[in-house]
Design brief:
With 274 residues, the chain is α+β, with helices and mostly antiparallel strands. It has six helices and twelve strands. The protein is globular, with a radius of gyration of 19 Å.
Length: 274
């Protein structure tokens, strides 16, 4: 069974933006075929490679805590070699130390999002940019029937130099061999470095921006809920859709940088499995 991916737990410009990446890798399709007893690839059993490529469009807040949205084109990449090495849109480049129908354990290197003043020139002016970073990540999941418990821990090297962890549960409903639905709920925790970088306001930043000083500390910063569906309308082509929202908690919610606690997101993508 394919690794179950959460809808939260990647760095800003909002976990919301990262959440929509999960869909674009065709995760629901993999769960659907696993549940039906079919192969997730038309060439399964004859090749060491499982490859799904495609593209989509995502709508998400401009940054975590933003009020305004942006529309972004997104790649849909999900490549696995011998169920051991992978490259996908969500987790980047990595390997599975353990991968079975029930358990998944792995590690990867991926992209940690930053934040730019230009995302909201009036509100973010004077705060400075947060550089993007290379992120090292560990993840694990356990699947029992239709439910998957998943968790991940990522550390940015650059940017905030912070830690972000996620835990959640996904329920998958294979309606037929070609159509599946899923729902996911997750919570995200972040350390002091991450919270200070993305939600704190230093005295210098306060003087430049006009925002009140604010000290942000480690803790749970958000919860997310999302639903999605995949229609595999041929043996190779699949259409994926998802929608959901995050809700900021604790210091992330109370920060003067945050303009809205509710963070809706959605995405639509088309993928081709070789």
């Amino acid at each position: 069974m394919a690794e179950k991916r959460s809808v939260a737990g990647i760095n800003a410009p909002g976990v919301t933006l990262s959440a929509v990446l999960l869909l674009l890798a065709g995760n629901a399709a993999a769960q659907m075929t696993a549940g039906s007893g079919a192969s997730s690839s038309p060439r399964a059993g004859t090749s060491s490679w499982d490859i799904t490529l495609g593209a989509g469009v995502a709508v998400a807040p401009k940054y975590e805590g933003a009020r305004d949205f942006r529309v972004l084109p997104m790649p849909a990449i999900d490549i696995t070699w011998r169920d051991r090495v992978f490259l996908n849109t969500e987790n980047g480049l990595g390997f599975y130390a353990l991968k079975s129908n029930a358990f998944t354990l792995g590690a990867s290197v991926t992209y940690g999002w930053g934040r730019r003043e230009k995302y909201d020139r009036r509100h973010l002016r004077g705060l400075g940019n947060v550089n993007a970073a290379v992120q090292g990540r560990m993840f694990a999941s356990y699947t029992l029937d239709a439910f998957t418990l998943h968790t991940s821990l990522g550390r940015d090297f650059g940017g905030s130099d912070g830690l972000v962890g996620t835990v959640g549960v996904t329920a998958t409903l294979p309606v037929s061999q070609r159509f599946a639905m899923w729902a996911d709920i997750a919570a995200t925790w972040a350390d002091d470095n991450h919270m200070k970088t993305f939600f704190g306001v230093t005295p210098t930043q306060s003087a430049r921006s006009g925002l009140s000083r604010f000290k942000a500390s480690a803790g749970f910063k958000r919860t997310d809920f999302a639903v999605g569906a995949t229609w595999k309308f041929t043996d190779h082509w699949s259409l994926n859709a998802t929608a959901g929202a995050g809700y900021l908690l604790g210091d992330a919610a109370h920060s003067p940088i945050t303009r809205r606690r509710l963070q809706p997101f959605s995405a639509l993508s088309l993928g081709y499995t070789f």
